[in-house]
Amino acid sequence: MLSNRHLSGWLLAAPLALVLVVFLVAPIVMITVVSFWGATEWSIYPAFQFDNYAFLFGSEVTYRVFLNTLKYAVITWVFTLLIGFTVAYFLAFHVRSLTWQIALFLLCTIPFWTSNIIRMISWIPFLGRNGLANSTLISWGVIDEPLEWLLFSDFSVILAFVHLYTLFMVVPIFNTMMRIDKSLIEAAVDAGATGWQTLWHVIIPLTKPGIMIGTIFVVTLVMGDFITVRFMSGSQSANVGRMIQNDIGLLQYPSASATAVILLITVLMVIALLLRLVDIRKEL
Amino acid sequence: MEPRPRSFYILAVFFGLFLVFLYGPTITIAILSFQGPGGGLTFPMRGTSLHWFRDLFEQQAVGDIWGSFSRSLTLGLMVMVTTVVVSVMGGLAFRKRFRGSGILFYLIITSLVIPSILVSLGVGLIWSQSGLTVHWSTSGFGAQLTWTLPFGLLIMFAVFNRFDQSYEEAARDLGASPWQTIRHVVLPIIASSLIGVALFGFTLSYDEFARTLLTSGSYNTLPLEIFGMTTNVTTPVIFALGTLTTVFSFLVIALFLTIYWLAGRRRARRGSDAGKGLV
């Protein structure tokens, strides 16, 4: 007989499963199917051909764009990790009252609940040709000519990524740090460890799960992004998301789907690699 | 209390700079949105005025932003309510292992990490190939749920991991039915975390761009409308709009935090009457 336990589980999970099947599984299946279809200039037709993949893997542009996407992910990861870890470390170990910890933590997370697009737009007055950064540097005499690479460049893309996604590092790292038993740190200090040694041999190893979760967030967000790259590079740089979006704009859905399938596989492989290193479910 | 080490002050400065980095740009466009009528997208300010805010109320200057705002608001509320209900049910379901729970868990994680454009593209394709018309309240609504539900569920998992099951046992021992246990014991205890789930549900939906891009149809939500403006509007009116929606977001966040705080106080006040009968 079907046990009561399974039945109540299924009933409670049914709405969730329904949403995920219709809006997650079905779309993935659809994209995979369409990636084998053919397209004319204005329509797509069912087929089973490998043309889209052949074209994708045959083109040198694909490799360059995927490499560029990984470059963005790695550089952004380094910066968000360094900044996020430092911020979380300060909050968890140097701020002493819980009220202050919560208040400052909230200050760090509030921008997460506001619009990413507005936060991107708000860099224009800073980085533009006549923006704050250039005019300040000129008035200090550091440069004579405005720097052209501040806005609409790889620099501004990565700056925006770091700006948008550092809190995805801060939150899980802070969460893990808050659960470190403070007596372990006292023990390290009593045993004669310096501040750096405590940090390196006690705190960082214990914070690894948080770092991993933050890493998964940042890497997947950057790899799947298309809007930040489009906006902050002024359409001058490309990543995989942009490639997909371009094809969509040209109504080339089959080739967009093929790229999307490869992107998904890449992202899932990265995650699988990271998940081998940490069990997320234990860390909540 | 021992004196603070020097590292405290260095880190405090670093933290301060981080906050400036985080909020500086937003504050800058807030200032620039008060540009005089002749002002541009950067400093200097050419006078101060409410000119650009007034422009927001003129249809021809900015398109249909109020229509898109009300759509975003409605959609945000729809997503919020659905996220809360489905997350609570999902959270309750995951307290016990059931057949398929492992697969479902991996689907939740996939939903969280899948590039948004895939959801957008896939849902759009399904709708177009089955002859339906994409609309923000159907395809757009569902696409957004794939982003808000994982957050809601992760919060619920965290809540139930810390949940003391002896309360439920006590209720059962006193003869409560499963539904009564949930209604009168579990829900009141987790109520304050639901405020957090609701906050995620609403704000993530209200700001969502990528997943709505190909699924919202001919009526834009606010983020789509704003993005459209970035390509053809070159006046501070876009800063005025940005400032206004950011202020709106802040008000929403403040509202949720206040409710959370009030709920906590109310609970602290009414929480325990242990020992009162003895006096």
From TrEMBL, chain A:
Where is this protein chiefly located?
membrane
The UniProt entry lists membrane topology as: Multi-pass membrane protein
Q: Which organism is it from?
A: Roseobacter cerasinus
Name this polypeptide is given: ABC transporter permease
Question: Which segments cross the bilayer?
Answer: 12-37, 72-92, 104-126, 149-174, 253-275
Q: Which family does it belong to?
A: Belongs to the binding-protein-dependent transport system permease family. CysTW subfamily.
Q: Which PANTHER family match?
A: INNER MEMBRANE ABC TRANSPORTER PERMEASE PROTEIN YDCU-RELATED, INNER MEMBRANE ABC TRANSPORTER PERMEASE PROTEIN YDCU-RELATED-RELATED
Which terms does the UniProt entry file under GO BP? transmembrane transport
TrEMBL record, chain B:
Question: Biological process GO terms, please?
Answer: transmembrane transport
Q: Which Gene3D superfamilies match?
A: MetI-like (1.10.3720.10)
Statement: the UniProt record of this protein carries the keyword Protein biosynthesis: no
Q: Where is the ABC transmembrane type-1 domain?
A: 69-256
**Topology versus the membrane:** Multi-pass membrane protein
Keyword set for this entry? Answer: Cell membrane, Membrane, Transmembrane, Transmembrane helix, Transport
Q: Could you confirm whether the keyword Transmembrane appears in this record?
A: yes
Superkingdom of this entry's organism?
Answer: Bacteria
Cellular component per GO? plasma membrane
Pfam families with a match to the protein in the record: BPD_transp_1 (PF00528)
InterPro entries the UniProt entry points to: Bact_Polyamine_Transport, MetI-like, MetI-like_sf
Q: Give its localization.
A: Cell membrane
Read off the CDD domains from this record.
TM_PBP2
Query: Where are the bilayer-spanning segments?
Result: 7-34, 73-94, 103-127, 147-164, 185-206, 237-263
Q: Family assignment?
A: Belongs to the binding-protein-dependent transport system permease family. CysTW subfamily.
Entry protein name: ABC transporter permease
Higher taxonomy: Bacteria, Pseudomonadati, Pseudomonadota, Alphaproteobacteria, Rhodobacterales
